[in-house]
Design goal:
This protein is of the alpha/beta class. It folds into two domains: about 180 residues, Rossmann fold (3-Layer(aba) Sandwich); about 45 residues, no CATH class. The chain has eight helices and eleven strands. The strands form two sheets. A seven-stranded mixed sheet has the order 3-2-1-4-5-11-10, with helices on both faces.
C-alpha cells in the first residue's frame, strides 16, 4: 500500500533541509508562555504528539515535566533520541492510535500537526485517542495555522535555495485542503512531494472537539498568546479540556 504523504515526506532528509531555519528561540518562548498560562504542576507527565525532532519536547522537559515525544517519522525520532534522559523519551507512533498503558495530564499537538488526513473520521480518531490517553480533566493544546488568513494570503509560487538545493514551491487551495507542491533536484535526480493539510477553521475545531467530548477553555492567535482574530491572527491556538 502506498504511504500517506506525511509518512514519506517527513521521513526524508529533504524535509528537514527545507525547514531547517525554523525559529527555535520563538518555539521555546511559545512553550514557556503556554506553561505559564496552563499552570501545570511540574510533577505532571505530558505528551508531545507529532514531536518531529523534539525541540518542543526538550523545552517541556527542561521546564520540569516528564515528557514523551512521539512522531510517525523514524528518522525524526532517531534524531530526537539524542536528548533522551530519565524524564524525556521518544517513540515512533501514529497519532490516530492510543499509546497503551500511558496517561498524560496534558497533550501538546503543535506547529500545524493536525488535519493531514483525507477524512473527518481520521481527525476524530486522533481526538478520541487523545481523549483516552488524557487523565481526568487533562488538557489538549492544539497549535494550528489560521486557515482563513493563510488562504487569503496564499503565496502561489516561491523559490527557496537551502544548502545548494533549489526548492520550487507552489501552493493551492481546493475548498477543503491547502496543498504545497515541492519540486527539486539533487545529485542528478528529480524529486517531487506534496503536503496536504485540511483548511480547518475555528468553527471546524469547535464541532470536532465537542463531538469528541472536549470543552474549549481558551483560544489564542499567536505565540505570545494574544486574542484570536480570524482576519489578522497568525495562528489558531486552542486549549481544550477533557470532559
Amino acid at each position: 500500500m502506498e504511504k500517506e504523504w506525511f509518512a514519506s515526506w517527513f521521513d526524508t532528509p529533504y524535509y528537514h533541509i527545507l525547514y531547517k531555519n525554523r525559529d527555535d528561540a520563538e518555539a521555546k518562548k511559545f512553550i514557556l508562555n503556554l506553561i505559564d498560562n496552563l499552570k501545570l504542576p511540574k510533577t505532571d507527565k505530558v505528551l508531545d504528539l507529532a514531536c518531529g525532532k523534539g525541540r518542543h519536547s526538550v523545552t517541556l522537559n527542561e521546564s520540569g515535566y516528564d515528557v514523551l515525544g512521539v512522531d510517525l517519522s523514524p528518522a525524526s525520532i532517531a534524531s530526537a533520541n539524542k536528548y533522551n534522559n530519565a524524564r524525556l523519551r521518544f517513540d515512533v507512533h501514529d497519532m490516530r492510535e492510543v499509546l497503551p498503558n500511558e496517561s498524560f495530564s496534558a497533550i501538546f499537538n503543535l506547529f500545524t500537526s493536525f488535519g493531514y488526513f483525507n477524512s473527518t473520521e481520521d481527525n476524530k480518531k486522533v481526538l478520541n485517542s487523545i481523549h483516552t490517553m488524557l487523565s481526568n480533566n487533562g488538557v489538549l493544546i492544539i497549535d494550528f495555522m489560521n486557515a482563513s488568513r493563510v488562504i487569503e494570503q496564499l503565496i502561489e509560487t516561491e523559490v527557496k535555495r537551502v544548502d545548494e538545493i533549489v526548492f520550487n514551491i507552489s501552493r493551492r487551495y481546493d475548498g477543503s485542503h491547502i496543498y504545497k507542491d515541492i519540486k527539486f533536484e539533487d545529485n542528478g535526480k528529480s524529486f517531487s512531494y506534496t503536503e496536504r493539510v485540511q483548511a480547518l477553521k475555528k468553527e471546524d475545531f469547535e464541532h470536532l472537539l465537542e463531538a469528541c467530548n472536549f470543552e474549549i477553555l481558551r483560544t489564542f492567535g499567536d505565540f505570545n498568546l494574544s486574542e484570536f482574530n480570524e482576519k489578522d491572527s497568525d495562528r489558531l491556538i486552542i486549549i481544550a479540556q477533557k470532559k
